[in-house]
Write a structure and sequence with these properties.
- The protein is of the alpha/beta class and 377 residues long.
- It has two domains: 3-131, Rossmann fold (3-Layer(aba) Sandwich), CATH 3.40.50.720; 135-315 and 348-372, Dihydrodipicolinate Reductase, domain 2 (2-Layer Sandwich).
- The chain contains ten helices and 17 strands.
- It has helices at residues 14-24, 46-55, 66-70, 87-96, 111-123, 139-149, 181-184, 189-203, 321-336, 349-368; strands at 3-10, 34-42, 61-63, 77-80, 100-103, 129-131, 156-164, 210-216, 221-223, 229-231, 237-243, 249-255, 264-271, 274-279, 285-290, 299-302, 372-373.
- It has a nine-stranded mixed sheet with strand order 16-15-14-13-7-12-11-8-17. A six-stranded parallel sheet has the order 3-2-1-4-5-6, sandwiched between helices. It has a two-stranded antiparallel sheet with strand order 9-10.
- It is globular and about 65 Å long.
- It starts with a strand and ends with a strand.
- It binds nicotinamide-adenine-dinucleotide (NAD).
- Nicotinamide-adenine-dinucleotide binds at residues 10-15, 42-45, 48, 66, 81-84, 86, 104-105, 132, 134, 192.
């Protein structure tokens, strides 16, 4: 029997509706232990909650007061997808209401906010709490992860993880909350994209002991969309270089201005006996090289729909962003139902906290132009 997990959604913007779409086509997945049903939604914007009323027949509660949603006894779990300045207030309230929590990154606007969330999690060890990060569910990313786990890499030469956006190359793009320090946070692009690039390195044991960071704010002003030009104080781009205690380097790029890249997530692992890489710019293929002396030959494999959670799509067909998102949700639902998340669980609160420690050190290193030791908890 497939268990039904009844969800409330707080924040019905871009990501809230992506979840609704993934839930609506759950029949795409074969034999999952649990499936989501969205029964309650909350947003301050009635157009967005109206979209849910129009498109999600299972919704029975629509509210602009998240505490009313949390008081709903029908809600088992909450997906909270709100701006960063609200995480530290809402996530503990969700847990206090006894609901499982799937929270959006960065899991608090800064390290102090993340500590508030962590304290609340410790009070509710019975609840399943995970943080969103979907890109590693691409089949090509899983191939790179398996390649490392199978020990093909040898001694690591370098790991690079990047997330490159490009729309902010247009200086005429109006400012939004992701470019405002008080709503997005002082991390800037690192808070927005850092969890995406750190999910896999942290999972594979890559915790840098020290970091440096090159930070860029190429366009310090932007139009506000109402005819004015206002300060744009958040960092556009960050290139973080980290160094492990045992000597290998980690390079992380969180760029809002990567010319030509609409949404490229990439992972590259270079080693003495094996190397592998994947980028969503070329979503069907991964590349790898095995080296035992002699010729150094990269191989390219075309992947189809080879997923952690089997789906009805034929194995030769292409995989895309909505599929990665649905696979991530399947991993979370599987854990709630007692499964092992298909062998690759979503970001844990401990991983989110480590990522805050790295970003906090990187921000200081970038502003002061120093190398900082990362203060893990
Ligand atoms: N996993 C990903 O790939 C990904 C992508 C984009 C954003 N995000 C994250 O998702 C979160 C939301 O980002 P988004 O792009 O969906 O933003 P968004 O602006 O599209 O949506 C946020 C919604 O929160 C609502 N909101 C604000 N205050 C509220 C309140 N007090 N009560 C109820 N609703 C309220 C807003 O009205 C808005 O509709 C952020 O943490 C962001 O970092 C994740």
């Amino acid at each position: 029997m497939t268990r039904v997990i009844k969800f409330g959604v707080i924040g019905c913007g871009l990501m809230g509706r992506e979840f609704a779409s993934a839930a609506a086509r759950w029949l795409h997945l074969n034999d999952t232990k649990a499936r989501p049903e969205i029964v309650a939604v909350c947003d301050l914007n009635p157009d967005l909650t109206g979209w849910f009323s129009d498109n999600v027949p299972s919704v029975t509660q629509v509210t602009d007061d998240y505490k009313a949603l949390l008081a709903n006894p029908d809600v088992d779990a909450v997906y909270c997808a709100v701006p960063h300045n609200l995480h530290a207030q809402m996530y503990p309230d969700i847990l206090a209401a006894g609901k499982h929590l799937f929270g959006e990154k960065p899991f608090g606007i800064d390290a102090a906010a993340n500590a508030t969330i962590t304290d609340a999690i410790h009070v509710h060890p019975d609840l399943i709490v995970r943080c969103s990060s979907e890109m590693p569910y691409f089949p090509g990313a899983q191939k790179v992860i398996d390649f490392v786990r199978q020990g093909h890499v040898g001694e690591v030469i370098e790991v690079e993880a990047a997330f490159l956006h490009s729309s902010d190359l247009n200086p005429g793009k109006p400012i939004n909350w992701k470019r405002m320090v008080d709503v997005n946070g002082a991390y800037g692009c690192m808070g927005d994209l850092g969890m995406h690039v750190l999910h896999v390195p942290l999972r594979l044991g890559g915790r840098p002991a020290r970091v440096a960071a090159a930070l860029v704010n190429r366009f310090p002003t932007r139009p506000d969309g109402k005819g004015n030009v206002v300060p744009c104080e958040t960092w556009d781009n960050a290139t973080i270089t980290g160094y492990m205690d045992d000597g290998w380097p980690l390079v992380l790029k969180t760029w809002r201005i990567g010319p030509g890249h609409s949404n490229t997530w990439s992972l590259r692992v270079l080693g003495t006996t094996g190397s592998a890489e994947f980028a969503t710019a070329n979503p069907r293929q991964w590349r790898y090289m095995r080296y035992k002396g002699g010729a150094q030959v990269w191989q390219v494999e075309d992947l189809g729909f080879q997923t952690l959670f089997p789906a009805l799509t034929g194995g030769i067909f292409e995989f895309g962003f909505p599929d990665a998102l649905q696979q991530m949700w399947a991993a979370y639902l599987d854990e709630i139902a007692g499964g092992d998340a298909g062998g690759f669980h979503c970001v844990t609160p401990a991983e989110a906290t480590d990522h805050h420690a790295i970003l906090t050190a990187a921000l200081k290193a970038g502003v002061d132009r120093t190398v900082e030791t990362v203060a893990y908890g």
